[in-house]
Amino acid sequence: MGDNPGEMSSIFDESFNAGLPVRRRDLLHTVLRVFIWIGMVLSGLITLLVFLNLFNIPEVISRAPGYGTGYVVGMMLACTIPGAILFLMTFPVWMEAKWAINLNIVFAVMWGFLLLTMVLVIGFASILVMLPGAIYLVPYWIFLFSIRKKWNQ
């Protein structure tokens, strides 16, 4: 027993809870949490808009004369790829997957190569195409990569 008469003794010492792992979501800065939710909502909106347009196939085809139905539908489904990539970048981080930051590193490298390729092929005007993505992705990756060491422990 301790010095206080109301204090209960314990078979565990003070170091018992010291080795408990930290929840990965607790490592996320508030700004990073906002970025993650924006990414998940945007990816859902992109997918929703594409699937809503799938119900208007005749109207979409009338606006794209000379293209077959298969081509138009294929291009519409291909428009879900950016949304799917954005979802793959944010959802595993929110679900605290250990490999989530490493996956984001892969996407960051791919995005960098895409930007470099576009600059070399199209010119510096292509930077304007990538600018909206950069405004979102660069701060997201900076915040995310700053917690990488703690995340992987």
Automatic annotation (TrEMBL):
<protein>
    <submittedName>
        <fullName>Uncharacterized protein</fullName>
    </submittedName>
</protein>
<keyword id="KW-1133">Transmembrane helix</keyword>
<keyword id="KW-0472">Membrane</keyword>
<keyword id="KW-0812">Transmembrane</keyword>
<feature type="transmembrane region" description="Helical">
    <location>
        <begin position="34"/>
        <end position="55"/>
    </location>
</feature>
<feature type="transmembrane region" description="Helical">
    <location>
        <begin position="101"/>
        <end position="121"/>
    </location>
</feature>
<feature type="transmembrane region" description="Helical">
    <location>
        <begin position="127"/>
        <end position="147"/>
    </location>
</feature>
<feature type="transmembrane region" description="Helical">
    <location>
        <begin position="67"/>
        <end position="89"/>
    </location>
</feature>
